[in-house]
Design a protein that fits this description.
The structure is a homodimer. The first copy, chain A, is built from 13 helices and 14 strands. The first copy, chain A, is α/β, with parallel strands linked by helices. Chain A is globular, with a radius of gyration of 21 Å. The first copy, chain A, starts with 5 loop residues before the first strand and ends in a 5-residue tail after the last helix.
């Protein structure tokens, strides 16, 4: 039989057939009326997903490009930037801010910890404020979801602009750009938004736009004001990835048709199902066992199991792609992503394959116990 | 009947069905073995198309991103940059270099002129050299193709790094990165390479890489050294647009199967056919009537014809997308692109639609004369 493949990483994620289908349509010109209609609708849908009234600026870029746009537009050399980190992506904010010459204040937690808003308040008070505070909503490297609402409040109270990495959280768990006072919500196409990688974006408040106009580093394609002005006329300043924009528009339509609240509830139940299955198998969670951690489930490597080998068995024998740990967590954990186009049968497949692969590696696991726990947990999930 | 649409712009260009088809395949992970194989092959094919031994760095970006990578990696404030311009894209090199703080020497021609290597030699001598010289191979705004080989020689003789905009020329007309001593060949996916927009790249010589390591502006996703190091391990530093990379790999395979020399000859004949058809209709060329100008044919607006209206008629009545002039040429010219996935029947379609639209606008044109001239010219095309 032809091999079936299952992509269970927290990005890129599986893309629904309706979205794939539009990628195969002939290319249209980016200044023609049909593309402009799609472009305008896509930008409005991005605002709806970000829950932002202010524009969402769309770039043809890896997700990291939208991160860089925030740092480049908001950092002139010597500007104070405060970064809260507790994993790989938080630390990347810090290295990027340093690269752009920021006066960096780094509130750094061990990987896997959950940031505390009081620590941020103290750090801001000690530093005498900051121009911008950089936060991570879902730390994809650890599975921890931070209380961004409380962290953003602490930053705003100190008069700082609030920038949030929402790459793996947007569309999966609640994020309220305007209501939580977030100036810049950064995200990308290839996570919970069910679109291939290649588009990145950030919502920008009027305060963030004004700060960008007043200074920052040299930048051209990632310049916010140029992008904003082009988007206002539905006239992208540079040829956008027209196929991907059309795909994102379709995917956002699917998400908004489901409804953001329904999607959030589905992700909570997927996260619960995954964690209960993992625990039923006798494995130990690395990510918190809490509803908020609904993006990626991180699991400690069982004693005597080589994570790299386990992942290769899963991939090459069963067609199931999970992912290991990054940086200092390499070899110590592995991760199951469950954002975007996922249902409970995907969780069951991931757990079933994991059970088989661990059994091959010599582990004693009662056959079917993880899948059973996952399905039961999912179907008993009350409204959250 | 369903509307048929014809895209005759010099970017984005039509994409062959084999390339569109792979875009609709399920997403694969960018660190898995199948993507790495595709990625490695695509990078090798890019080198073959650039005719460069040194690496070609691939970015997920609009084409402009690869331009910016050249300026950002090669420009520290005060570094002297010499730009040769004779149209919209040449002038963009100048504005980008200025934005990055270069000490700009601008050899500026009127739009539509052809740069003269002697002028470049004189300007470099007068300026006492430059760190880098920025050239435009095919000036898409005017249809002029410059003698980049001679211009590059003049720049190298003065000890400057040579950077060439080959966005609309690469794969359509001869360009020899190594043999002509070009340090940086900049191009994108959406022109003669028959792939949707969203990928941009530049070949970089060891000299250019060394200069980039030694300085330049602050940059992160467009950093050459980071990209080079990642590519060497087939481990992209940021999640690439996996779908577009797979598409580019297929498209480059088609181009190399045809053979670069065969593709160049086809483009010469397409350009000739287009120009002979245009002239047979009694229209006046703006772009040079020479074989080298095989990328885009620019045509002066006939007296009494409103270009914007003509283009709307072509697009909305006949489904044929041509494009007008940019900047100061807006309203004065219109352009037919013929790069990439084009054959003589595309030229015939463009000319036939143009004939119909001009007849509707009141012009007296002998029915069929342009198409006849184009077909005859193409089929009589001897080996060039």
């Amino acid at each position: 039989v032809p091999e079936k493949r299952y992509l269970f990483t927290p990005g890129p994620t599986p893309v629904p057939p309706e979205v794939l289908a539009i990628l195969a349509e002939p290319i249209i010109h980016h200044r023609g009326p049909d593309f402009r209609r799609t472009y305008g609708r896509c930008l409005e849908r991005l605002k709806a997903v970000c829950r932002a009234e202010q524009p969402v600026l769309l770039f043809t870029s890896s997700g990291t490009g939208a991160f860089e746009s925030a740092v480049a537009n908001l950092t002139a050399p010597g500007d104070r930037a405060l970064v809260v980190s507790a994993g790989y992506f938080g630390e990347r904010w810090a290295s990027m801010a340093s690269a752009f010459g920021a006066d960096l204040v780094h509130v750094r937690y061990a990987w896997g910890e959950t940031p505390d808003p009081d620590d941020l308040r103290t750090a801001l008070a000690d530093a005498g404020g900051a121009k911008a505070v950089y936060l991570t909503h879902s730390e994809t490297s650890t599975g921890v979801v931070a209380d961004v609402q409380a962290l953003a409040a602490a930053a705003r109270d100190a008069g700082a602009l609030v920038v949030v990495d929402a790459v793996s959280s947007l569309g999966a768990i609640p994020l309220e750009t305007d209501a939580w006072g977030i100036d810049v919500t950064v995200s990308g196409s290839q996570k919970a938004l069910m679109t291939p990688p290649g588009l990145a974006f950030c919502s920008v408040s009027s305060g963030a736009l004004a700060a960008a106009r007043a200074g920052g580093a040299t930048r051209y394609v990632l310049d916010w004001e140029r992008t904003r002005a082009g988007q206002e006329l539905l006239d992208a300043p540079f040829t956008p990835a027209v196929s991907l924009v059309r795909a994102l528009d379709v995917a956002l339509g699917l998400l908004l048709d489901e409804g953001l609240e329904a999607a959030f509830e589905r992700h909570v139940r997927l996260g619960r199902a995954c964690r209960e299955g993992v625990k039923a198998m006798g494995l130990e969670l690395f990510s918190p066992d809490e509803d908020r951690s609904a993006v990626v489930t991180a699991i400690r490597a069982p004693d005597g199991v080589d994570v790299a080998e386990l992942l290769l068995t899963l991939r090459d024998r069963f067609g199931v792609q999970l992912i290991g740990g990054q940086g200092e967590l390499k070899g110590k954990i592995f991760r199951i992503g469950h954002i975007g186009w996922f249902d409970v049968f995907d969780i069951a497949t991931a757990l079933a394959a994991l059970e088989l692969a661990l059994a091959e590696a010599g582990a004693e696991i009662e056959r079917g116990i993880a899948v059973t726990a996952a399905l039961e947990t999912y179907s008993s999930g009350a409204r959250v």
